[in-house]
Write a structure and sequence with these properties.
By secondary structure, this protein is an alpha/beta fold. The protein has 5 domains: 8-211, Beta-Lactamase, CATH 3.30.450.40; 221-320, PAS domain (Beta-Lactamase, 2-Layer Sandwich); 331-506, 3-Layer(aba) Sandwich (Rossmann fold); 509-577, Helicase, Ruva Protein, domain 3, CATH 1.10.8; 588-629. The chain has 26 helices and 19 strands. The strands form 5 sheets. It has a 5-stranded antiparallel β-sheet, with helices on both faces. Strands 7-6-10-9-8 form a 5-stranded antiparallel β-sheet. A 5-stranded parallel β-sheet has the order 12-13-16-11-17. Helix 21 (515-529) packs across helix 23.
Length: 634
């Protein structure tokens, strides 16, 4: 605010009349008048500068470090105009939002040396009316003439203060005190301060925005680089720095080596094309360095000025990170934990404790147990309890697909570049690959898998490019895989690899006391899933469940419990509500009666292997009857 020059004699008269007689002249500026009233009410002496409140040295150092950006910027502005301040006997102060002096520039302020003043508080409650207190109150620039100061000792100089606002908040106050009042026009002082204010607010706002952008860029799962012609990286986010360090592209702590010297195929990458003005979007790129070769998905955008490329921005995502993101996005993660498994028998407790131990090592694992015993759930639980829990869990059932399809599913396909896609070995990178019914894997596929697991490298079908991977295999087998291997029905080297650790899952009949607990757990899960009340099992129903042999094991129990839960009225499941086809004289009637066959299929939960166990026939036989009754296996 540029105020007209006022008569110092008149201002002094207004001041003395108020101090001595408490009479406020109507010509006193409203903000000054308000501040005088507050100063008098607070009992602040009007004669000499009182002892100032000061920050402890450690707190002052902490605040100065916090405000170093503003102090450094004002240092630069002051150094450019230092001579001007000296010639006209000007003082310059930087105060924080609490009116503590962070820095005292130029000549002494109110006869205080810089060491005496820095860390002191100059708020209205400390020194009464000043340009600082008025700006702090009203958040607007203000020029205060000497006689308007509350303390007479300070009335020899005029003072002008401006607020420094960022995002609508007061962050600093900058003050200039002028002693040579006749030599320097007030308008020059005000103009200087307004210029400082504008420059500082723009600078601090830009710094805040840059800091926010740095935080954003450091938190995204992409490596981001700003590169100038020739291959020098002038900026990289946190992940980008990590990637550069991984290929020895960091020359010193703060200097990045020239990519043209580090990337051996630099001229064949989108970066080189980018400097020719050719952008690339989501392109799969192979980077070859002395240390390693890796692939990523890269986007390169040229930045132009006057139609000339001045630099490029590159954003990349390593292929393995992309696969992990995709795997999690589509739900390739563990759905169960070891604590979610139910049982109290010694057989169950022993199995659960061993599962916890093997989960913690990184060995490949073989799960053996009859169909329906919960091997898939156990695989999920072991993955969840392992050091790979953050990685994907990919499942592949070896007995459900043709051999040539199984090979493509495992290793991926690269016969045609447009259709090149990763297999399960690549998708499971960093996590676990669960191979169910591994005993049904063809010999040639098993041999190729064994080689891949030994070298930790895989080639997609039709390609010669080797890609590294890091996975843990959890294999599941319904029969004795060792015996099958000894008979020559399973590839021996693969058996040696996947059986480094082994866990046997007991059949349900070997843990009968757990059956009621399991049934109640299944019913509780069903009630939660379908937002229904939990139904209670009567003791007679529990005894029936415990008396049954359960050839389909837990999966069969799941089907029986589901049927009872949904078909029982009320909240109690009685003996009459339980349907056990194995106990109702099913014999071979299902072979001629479609309804009986469908009912048995429902009890088996729609699982062919489980139904085969229940009916004591082969899967091939079941497929024949599916066709006979006009049913689809899905």
């Amino acid at each position: 605010m540029i105020r007209e020059r006022r008569s110092k004699e008149k201002l002094m008269n207004y001041y003395e009349r108020f101090v001595d007689e408490s009479v406020m002249d109507p010509n006193v500026h409203p903000w000054v008048a308000e501040s005088w009233e507050q100063s008098k009410q607070r009992g602040i002496t009007s004669q000499t500068m009182p002892t100032l409140i000061k920050l402890p040295k450690d707190e002052l150092a902490r605040r100065q470090n916090l405000h170093h950006a503003a102090m450094e910027y004002l240092n630069g502005l002051y150094n450019e105009t230092r001579e001007h301040f000296n010639v006209y006997n000007l003082s310059l102060l930087l105060l924080d939002q609490d009116c503590y002096v962070m820095k005292n520039y130029a000549l002494p302020f109110f006869q205080k040396s810089p060491g005496q003043l820095e860390g002191a508080r100059l708020a209205g409650e400390d020194i009464g009316t000043s340009s600082i207190s008025i700006v702090h109150e009203h958040k607007a620039p203000f020029l205060l003439f000497g006689p308007e100061m509350w303390i007479k000792e300070c009335q020899d100089g005029d003072a002008c203060s401006v607020p420094i606002m960022v995002d609508g908040q007061l962050v600093y106050i900058v003050t200039i005190v002028s002693v040579e009042q006749e030599e320097l026009p007030h308008s020059a002082v005000v103009s200087l301060l307004l210029s400082i204010r504008y420059a500082m607010e723009q600078h601090l706002t830009m710094l805040a925005q840059l800091e926010a952008r740095h935080v954003i860029l450091d938190s995204v799962p992409f490596a981001v680089y700003h590169i100038i012609p020739g291959g020098d990286v002038v900026y990289s986010n946190k992940l980008g720095k990590s990637r550069l360090a991984g290929i020895d592209a960091v020359a010193t702590k703060d200097v990045v080596a020239n990519l043209n010297d580090v990337v051996l195929n630099y001229r064949h990458t989108p970066l080189y094309k980018g400097f020719k003005g050719i952008p690339s979007y989501n392109k799969e790129v192979t980077w070859i360095t002395q240390r390693k070769t890796y692939e990523d998905i890269t986007t390169v955008v040229p930045l132009e000025q006057d139609k000339a490329v001045t630099s490029v921005v590159a954003v990349s995502l390593p292929i393995e990170d992309l696969r992990t993101l995709v795997a999690h996005a589509v739900g390739y993660k563990a759905r169960y934990s070891l604590t979610s498994m139910v049982g109290e028998t010694s057989a169950f407790i022993t199995m659960q404790e061993k599962a916890g131990r093997v989960a913690r090592n990184n060995n490949h694992l073989l799960l053996q147990g009859e169909s329906g015993t919960g091997k898939q759930r156990m695989a999920h639980a072991i993955h969840q309890a392992s050091g790979r829990a953050a990685g994907p869990l990919i499942s592949l059932k070896c007995g459900d697909i043709l051999p040539e399809v199984l090979e493509e599913e495992l290793f991926g396909s690269g016969e045609y570049r447009d259709e090149s896609r990763p297999g399960k070995l690549e998708l499971a990178n960093g996590g676990t690959l669960f191979l169910d019914e591994i005993e049904k894997m063809p010999m040639h596929v098993a041999a190729r898998l064994a080689d891949a697991l030994k070298t930790c490298k895989v080639c997609r079908l039709g390609e010669k490019v080797e890609r590294g991977f890091d996975i843990r295999i959890i294999a599941a087998c319904d029969s004795d895989l060792k015996r099958l291997t000894e008979k020559g029905a399973f590839f021996s080297p693969l058996y040696e690899i996947v059986s480094k650790s082994m866990l046997r899952i007991p059949p349900l009949r070997a843990r009968r006391e757990d059956i009621p607990l399991l049934a109640e757990h299944i019913i509780s899960e069903l009630a939660e899933q379908h937002n229904m009340l939990v139904k209670e099992l009567q003791n007679e129903a529990k005894e029936l469940l415990m008396s049954y042999e359960w050839p389909g094991n837990i999966k069969q129990l799941q089907g029986v419990a589901e049927q009872a839960f949904f078909n029982t009225e009320g909240n109690t499941i009685a003996l009459k509500d339980i349907s056990l086809l194995g106990e109702t004289g099913i014999s071979t009637a299902w072979k001629e009666d479609k309804d009986i066959f469908v009912e048995a299929w429902k009890v088996a939960g729609g699982n062919i292997s489980r139904l085969a166990n229940m009916l004591d026939v082969s899967r091939v036989t079941l497929y024949r009857y599916l066709k006979k009754f006009g049913l689809d296996k899905e």
